[in-house]
Each structure stands twice: as structure tokens, then as C-alpha cells.
Structures
1.
Amino acid sequence: MTLSLERRAALWGDRTAVADATDGRDASYADLDSRADALARGLAARGIGAGDAVAVVSRNRIETIALVFAARRLGAVLAPISHRLTPATVRAPLDAIDPAVVVHEPAQRDLVREVADDRSRSFDDLRGGEGADYEAADPDPDRSLLYLHTREEADRSAVGETDSEPDRPGESLNADPPAAGRVVDLPARAVEWNCITAAAAWGLGRSDRAPTLLPVSDTDGLHRLVLPLLYVGGRVDLLRAFAPERALAAIERGATALFAGATEYRELIADDAFESTDFGSVEWIGARSALPTDARAALAERAPVVRAYGRGETGPNDLYRPVDRGDADPPDPDCVGRPFPDCEARIVWEGEPVAESEVGELQIRGPVTARGYVGDAETFPEWVPSGDHAYREGGDYFVLGRAAEAAVGDERRVHPREVERELEAHEEVREAGAVVGGGESLAAVVGDAEPGELRAFVADRLPDAAVPREVTVVESLARRSTGEPDRAKLRRELGGEERFDTE
């Protein structure tokens, strides 16, 4: 196995590897290899070598992708950091990573200056002047290659988002920026196995191409599809930042696969050009989260919609529902299917596997999992906890959401998604949002059903503590970028934080 870009350049030198839709530049595999070499020389000239961490704060750029291979050549570790963080929130991941250098594009100069001014370098700094000769490091598969900043969704106010203008006209401000999160350590072996597993599951090949609908600083943006595409000789259409019109134009140019979250797909569908965009080349549309019913239906008219599951800790490609299963019924929105090749999954409660249909924590094992958290002395166990509640039924896994959102019921912990699923089973409910805690459950629904009727409808379907004490009919539900109801906002609207202490 090898992540060697040089070998791919030797095989497919003139083939387009990355096309930058922003400035119209294309980079062949030979060009990408040359850029990786120039960046490696620039880093070597600044003393970067084996074991050093290199952070990069940038929108999607060809250079960001080339840095993965430049770091690999030096035996260094690349740590992509979201450009949408603030000086306050970028400090936590940078402190955890302790990079020897922080590479940035001009637009992020002020962001990194406050926290890493003496270590910051622009892409032009690295490319300019004479680079140092370097000896390629031994490609040890157990050496760290990527430090990926995981994230927990949070209210925008909690992570310092402002109402400032986007970096470029048309850039979305709707997606929640990353919160503090943790930084996971991915050895080269895990990165490569992810490429192999993704290529096998999705059926990727040299004729495939996909636009970057997510930031490459995100594990789903870089690790889920971009690196697997380059691994097999495919093409990446680079969007500097997500904007619906640019994404739809990329689809028109011949995209064969899409992967994004609920926020991006909602914005695509809402754009005036969506109805007239030709999706004829698209073979599948991947979603990293449950999509609202109307969004899923609109996309399914264009191509098969596939729900996939993975986290930074477990690897981005863990579970998926294949496009060729041919199920007669529409897929359940919470169904994430079955394990990718070379991955295994199980549901546990208090350390023991549970019976089918019982709720517990989802755990993953396989060669794609991360080694551990950066800064922690202990590595992850063989079965890596996901932190998500899920259950298994008929061979398929169903993910409810973060375990931290569950609360203790009469007999077991109850996740609010369980309440929402039962409410949405009523024919007059289109959407539901619930919060649980403090020994009670409250819910809001979009639809025409009467609150009293809904309470009676779910009374026999849920544990007593999970039956909503109150059901409120609303016009719409606030949602997070994952597509889930914004339960923090819902909690405030339905009764205040003090009523929902889950300790």
C-alpha cells in the first residue's frame, strides 16, 4: 500500500486531478505532485521534519490538498483547521496540536496572527525563494499523517460567530462553525485504508469526479471523498467555499458523486437554478446526516440518495446504505445501513453488547479508526466509541444522535430522537422536535394533529418518562447544520434550561 503521489503522477501525469472552479485553474496529477514537492521544500527550509505538526488555516485550495502529500514526504503531520473559527475558538485546536508552523491564505492572516504570529506563513511564503533539498522520510504506515479537528455542533453564539460578511460573495453563512471539539490522530495506515474502503464501497474509479461541497478542513470534506478520489485517479472539482450556484455549475460540468450535509442540500434545492440543473451524470448523492423529508424527496428525483455515517474518531466511512440495494420502501431517515468493507459495528450498553432493536452506544472497529486524541497518553480501544446512540434492526444500523442528548428514563436512557420518531409516525405530523431531561419530555411538531391526540398516540409506544408532557404545534423547527432539530433552541423555547438537567 502507498499514498505516493509521485507514483500516481508517473501513471496519470496529464490527467486532471483537481480543478479550481474559482479561478479556472486545473492541476494535473503531475502538477499536484510538483506543488507538493515545492511545499515540502518550503517547509524543509523552515526546519520542518519528521514528527512536526503543520497546521493549515484556509478555504478549499489546491495547495491545501498538496500539503497532505508534502507533509507525508517529510514525515510531518498535517492539521487542517477551519477558516471559520474566530481568534478565540481557533486557540483550542492550535494549543492541542502545537504546530511548528501555521500555513494560511491571505484572508486568514488576521485570524492566525493573534494566536500564532511567530509561526505563521502564507502559501506564498512557502513557495517563494529557494526551498531546501530534503530526503523523503520513510513512509511508515504507523506514523501520524493527519490531525483532524472534530467538532460538536453548538449555538453560533457559543463559538463566537458574528454577522460579518463571508470571505467571498455567495459564501454560505448558514452552516454552524466548529466548536471546541477534540483533535484526533490519524496514522497513515488509517488514512490509506479509508481510501481503499471508500473506493470499494462507492465503486470509485478514474472516471469519477465530485465537487467539494464541504470544507477540506472537515473530516467529511477531505477524508470522506477527496482523498479516495485522488487515490483511484479521479477528479476533484474544488469550490473555495460552498455557494449553491457554484455547486450546481459543478454538477452541470459532469459530477458523478455528491457528498454534503443537510444545510448544503437545503441551499442547493432552494436555489433558483436547481430545477433547471442537469443531474444526469450524478450516480449517487451522499448525505452525512438525516435529511428533511422534502429535501430527500427532491434529491431522490435526481439520483439515489445514500445516508452514510462516520466520525473523526471512528473514521469517516463506517456505515452506509448502498445505492443498489433496491429496497421497495423509502429508506428510514435514521438508517445508516451496514458497515463498509473492513469495518465492524456493534451496539453496547454498560460495556455489554445488546440484543437487536435495543438502544445503546454505537462502537466501530477496523483499520480506518483514529489512534486517539492528540495530547492524550492513552490510545483508543479496539472498539472505538462513537458517542452516538443507535440500534440495530434487520441487519441495518439506525443512529439516533449524540448520547449526551439522552436522559435517564424509568428503565433506561431515552434519546429525544426516539420521541421524535414516534411522533412523526402519525400521519398528520410532518416534523417533530423533542427534548428530554429532568424526568420529563416536551415536544414541538409541525403538522395538523391535536396535541392531546399525539400524546395518546405515543403513550403505548414509549417509556412513561419519554411520553411528552406537553406537545406544542409550531410552523417550523429550527435545525442545526446536521439536519437535526436545534434542541438547544427548542429547550429554551419550550421551558427553559433549568427544566432539562440531564445529570
2.
Amino acid sequence: MKQSPLLEFKSDAFAISPGEDEATNPGIFGKALAEWLADELSARGHAAGEVIAEDFGWCVPVESKPHALYVVCASSDEQADSWRVFAFAEGGLIGRVFGKDTRDEDVARIYGLIKAAITARVDVRDLSEERA
């Protein structure tokens, strides 16, 4: 698995739906953030699929071949305004075998797009980046 740095920030812009964390682990939110990022990625020319609930957060699948590429969104510290976002790629065995593994570039490209989208919002504060 290839992973981007972790973006952490605060924003009141992403409402939590009642019972949203029933699809994830208790206290893990981020569906509205994931849906917004899916729209942002699609608007920037990267086809994003339907948001998927996982135990650890909400995933946005991003069209990518020959590997799977995702953006993960999750609340931080069970707070309604603290968020964590990162991108990761998995798979790509064929590309690695033939020396054409593009996972690093694809993760970096998607990470750049999500960082730019988040940074552009006026309702985001305390943005920090933590290297994986």
C-alpha cells in the first residue's frame, strides 16, 4: 500500500448525520466531507465513485488503473469539527512486475488535489500535514 501524508484540520462545514457512525466504528464520522471531496475530485477531472463506509472512516474510490485508489475521511477525537484526510493506493501487482508502478505518482496527484480543495475553503482552520 502507498499512502499520502495525513491532512488534519478543523471545520464546521461538514454536518454529521444522526446515526452516521453506525456504518463505521462508533465515533467515526466524515460522510459529508467524503461526499464533498468526491464532488471536488470529479469537478477536477478525476472520476470518483460512491462514498463507501469502512470501519476506519469514509472512503472515496477514485478511478485508477491498474490499482485501487482511495481518499479516506474520518473525524478526529470524536469531535464534530476535527477531520483527517489521506489518500492511498493498493494493488498494482502487474505494474510492479513490469516496472511501471504508478502508485506513488497517482497518490501524490490525488493528494495534491484534495489538499488544494481543502486549503481553498475559507471555513477550514488549523490545517496541518503529517508525513506517513
3.
Amino acid sequence: LATVRARLGPAYLPGGLVAALPREVYDSVVAAGRAALAEADTRVVAVGLANQGETVLAWDPATGQPLTDALVWQDRRAASVCAELDARAEELRRITGLPVDPYFAAPKMAWIRRHATGAGVVTTSDAWLVHRLTGAFVTDAATAGRTGLLDLDTVAWSETALDLYGLGGESLPRVVDCDAPVGTTTAFGPPLPLTGLLVDQQAALLAQSADDPAAAKCTYGTGAFLLARTGPEPRRTASGLVSCVAWRLGGRVTHCLDGQVYTVASAVRWLTDLGVISGADALDSVGGGVPDSGGVTFVPAFAGLAAPWWRGDVRGSLTGLGLDTGPGHLVRALCEGIAAQVVELATAAAADRGAPLTALRADGGLTQSALLMQTQADLLQRPVEVASLPDATALGVGAAARLGHRPGLSLREAVPEWKPSAVYEPSIPAAEAAERLGRFRAAVSALVERSEGTPAAGGVA
């Protein structure tokens, strides 16, 4: 196994704008791929590509050259597009399974057409990368499901959704299976078939639920993303979670529920930039210096609140500060704020599925923080199983590529056996967990009411 990372830092600009240079995105993929092949201790026979499903750009299909920056999933500039569609939001949710929110691809695509360029094609970043790598013009069913333009029932582009977003008549990539061979690339050196395509979070779910379809997973990265499989039929939700395609393998669709926390590692970076900690690896040492948050409540909604609230207008808050508040209290409050949002997602997923989660499987860079993982287990009141390899996304899309290369394999054969590196059991009583969650919910309720211009009356959201 070879793991190589190529750093890619998007620009965070005033007004909720987050963008990346497409050339840097492509160069990072090629550099990491070439280095991984050089380090691999076994022969590589196929390639898979995972992607940020909601990042979009316009590009020239004749030359492959980008025509705009890549608008990253956190970018909020398409809020005005969404506001105009408020009266049709429920109709669009019924068709696509997604709320009308700048997080998803369609509003960003519409914004590009209105304000940036009408030339070329406008797609999610995977379609551009695949075209650069192989010449094909395709996207996989799971990524298409993250746009807000895919009919959830037919897994085909929705003419109604396209028209409502002002994207009717656009040239869109062909929707293929996640294990479909789409072409051959020489970008990494030797000619290799590209046989796996999948959204990053769905890829992580594939890797962590192959042995247990009832398992839910949460990836702790720039944001936190909880996904839980629901089976072959789409399930519209009443909780505020997203209903979307998990994957389509061999023509068979699996659906899932999806919930998001927008700022996780980015909130840790915020504390780092302020000088509170030296970096993510200091969370445990600094937070471990105090027994609790000292009454501090942190709602890390730097880019708004996602599921189940969908309030992009809300911003974060720190309350309960005192002269005795120190760095350790802020760290613990941040860990509780992250974990509390994940609890809300898990609670919503359990309600939609009709059964509580038995455990939560966790991956991503911040699972290396024992403090965050223990806090998560405490507030969730369920075990948290940490993946033995933090790169579950790579394992999942690798499994899709393996299935595309050897169609006769079963999913269980394609995915490595699940073996957690650590299991965190709840260490506090349920009553204490409920009290902490109550404080967080009251803080969220106050933020929501304040954003609506009404006096905050306290209570639980």
C-alpha cells in the first residue's frame, strides 16, 4: 500500500467565497498518482478517481482548458440563485432529494452562467478531470446525484430541475456506473484503465459498510459527513438530511442518507490561526489540560449550518466565556460543538431509517484526535469505531475500480475487511450527555432566532 498526499489549498475570500485554481487541482492529482505508483509494492492494473461532488467549473470541451476557477463545495456565492428558487424548493427536493442550497453543484453552475461565462460546458470537477485524463465526457451516478439536477427515481438528468436552474440546453456529461471503465490514461506513467468513479463521501461509506449495510460512517476532514445506506429505493426524508445515490455498481443502485457539518478541520485551523493551538496534533495535549469546557459553548458554524437546519445565513458563536477561560476550554468546546452536530445528524438518520445506530464508523484525519473521538462517543452514547486506515475514501474508490476491472467480484471481495484501529465507548452517563447537547441546542436556537431578527428566547432547537 502506498499513500501519497499532495497539498491543495483553496482560497477563502470575503463573502463566503471559496475557490481553487483548476490547474492546481489537476497537477495535484497527477503528482499524487505518479508518486503513489512509484511507491507501490505491487503492480497497478486500474485507477479510480474520487472527487468533491459539489465543486464546479466551466471549461472548454475542445481543449480541456478551464474557463473559470473551481468553485469549491464550501462556496456560498450562489445564495442569490437559491433565494430566487425558494417557492420551488420543495418541488426540487422531491425530484432530486436535495434542498436548494449553495453547497450543491446546480446553484454554482447557474451562478457561473449568469456571472462568469456562457462559453464551454459547466460541470462538476470530476467530469473535467476525467476528460483531461481520458478524453471521456462522463460523470458517475453518485456525483450526478450531488448536483441537484438528477432525478432521484430514474437516476437521469431532470429536465424540470435543469429548467428551474436556468440550465436547460446545457451539454451535460453522460451518467455512468461507478464501476464503469471510461477510458485509459497515461497521466501517471504507464497506460492504465480508469474503471472507478465515486464521490469522496460515498466512497468512504462503501469502504466502511461493505460488511454491514446498517453501519453509518462519519468522515472528519475539512467538514464532517455522516452517511447511512437505505437500500435500493430512494427514501425522501422528513428530518432535513439529504437523500441521494450512494453508488450504482453493475447497474444496481444503492441509496443513502447524508448529513453535513461544514466546518471541522477548518474550525481547527481557525483556532490555529488565532494562536490558541499549534495545529490539529495539539488538540489532545491542550484540551487534555482541563477536565471540561468550563461552561463554554462553541457553535462552529463559520460557513453556516447544514443538515438538519440548512441555515447558511447563521454564523458561529462562542458563549460562556469568562476570565478563567483558557485554550483548553476552547479546544474542548470546539470538540463538543463538532460532536454535537454529528449527534444531530445521527439522530436524524435513525429517525429516517426507523432504527437507532448501533455504532458509528469514523475516518478522516481528525480521527487521530482521541479527545474528539471520545467526545463523540460520549455525546452520541454509542461506540465510535475508528478506521485502521484514515483514507477510507481511497479504499472505497479503489474497490469501485477493482469491480470495474474484474466485474465478477462481489462487493465483499473488493473491499478490505473492516478492522477498526480503536473503539471509543461512552464514558459519561446519558443524563450528562443530554445536558451538554441541551446547551448546544439552546445556543443554535439563539443563533437561528437572532438571524431571523427575533429575540432569542432560549430553549432547544
4.
Amino acid sequence: MRIILNDSGIFSFSGLNDSWEDSEGKKLSTCTIITTEPNSLMAVIHDQIPVILRPEDEADWLGRDKDDITVFTEIA
């Protein structure tokens, strides 16, 4: 199965990533895709779907200078 937008354009998922060191000094990189409840079209496939960012929200989501959590809850 191939899932695309109506306009067949490229889209971005919202996600989080981090790198940190454990107590032994080993580096660990982690990532996750943020999910939400599906719409009626996707519900027949799965009970969770990735949050798709609108193109106009991508810069805010990726901006490292953002620390206001309300910006991100409005986007997602």
C-alpha cells in the first residue's frame, strides 16, 4: 500500500530526536515519530497515524530557537 497526499506532494512527519550519553559515557541517539488518532480514511488501516506537518509549519517545527511549547501544540 502506498499512502500519498491528494496533490501527490512531499510531506513531513512531526518527530523528536535526541542524543545523550549514558552513565558509562556511551552515546545514544534516539528518535520517535509523533502519532495521533486516524481520520476515517486511515482508520481501516491502523489505530494511530503519524502527525503530518503543514508546509507552512515545517520551519517552526525544525527551528532550534523555539522553546515555547504552545507553538508546537498548535502545529500538531
